[in-house]
Request: fold
Amino acid sequence: MSVTVLVGSQWGDEGKGKMIDYLAPDMDLVVRFQGGDNAGHTVINDNGVFKLHLIPSGVFEEDCISLIGTGTVVNPSVLLEEIQSIEDAGVSTDNLKISSRAQILMPFHQELDALMEEQGGIGTTKRGIGICYAFKDLRKNLRFEDLLDEEELVKKIKEFLPVINSFLRVYEAPELDEDEVIKICLDWRDKLKDRIVNQHELIHDYIKKDKNILFEGQLAAMKDIDLGIYPYVTSSNPIAAYAAVSGGFPAKDIDEVIGVAKAFSSAVGAGPFPTESDDEQFNIIRGDGQNPDDEFGARTGRSRRLGWFDAPIVKYTNEINGYDALALCKLDKLDELDKIKICTGYTLDGKELSTIPTTSELERVEPIYEEMPGWLESTTKIRSIEDLPQKAQDYIRRIEELTDTKIKYVGVGPSRDEMAT
Reply:
């Protein structure tokens, strides 16, 4: 038995979907443990190209259970659309399950999110994620278990709807009709009731039976609500320890933590991004959006902000997560560059820093760069790290030194099999 947690080690969009798809054939259970449909995992395999927003990337393995876990917030309408798109591609979703304790993201969460953004937000995806988590803490949400008890469902809607309507009145938005909300929920119940399971029972049963379990994180540590670049963060904890918290099992049972990083840096949305660069070489890396691995957001479609590899950030997220291994994705995107920079540290007001500063200070830091020669040859056909061009291996080893990690996987293309190990 092994319990593996896979998380992003930068700002998100590192290639987690590819890595989960690569590891899933050896797994019995894949669990999405936090977040909602505000981000996406791009998976490219023999079944096609998929941008998954809620469904765990293990769904393509027929002998693997894919569980949307307790720590998530789930818009049932989005989930049903995603299920349909996967089934339309000929892939069964029979093994897709939802934790009975997962939070239900309602249409009014999205509406309030959009209204708040209009008043001056941080550039959210307006999917209602933050609002749903906020109402979770206010204890004014539904969980999937409520769909299975109509009497309890109606009781809870009657209790919290006046609170929701009071928020809507502040923004001069139309108030909600109680009967309409109940009707929507009962429709979701009819379509999803057979997928709702007791997560605690399932996970502990698999642990006792020595099964292989993979916990799938969304976004990355720099977007963590507590440890990231607050307030430019997500509304949950996309760090390895939260897999145990939301999974309801001891953290000591985690056997391996895998961090996923790009061979450069990217970010979507506002907030500090020290190595962001307008160097024309990033036009090569970004692409034009025609390819599934071009640098455009899987959820938003927005062009990503790009920059050089930021070693202090990955070292910091390693300290948070404790990586047993690092997966370095998209190395092939650097194949055509004659010179490559690595950020080895920062200065602030002329002084070199020894740690990651506050968010406002991170806006003002100056990156310290080290320049390395590019390898100027294709890596896409290579399947062993030892067979990569020597200059590519030098780049990988330098990243290991600067981040105090061990790179076990190197992505050299978007497809599952395009991996050097």
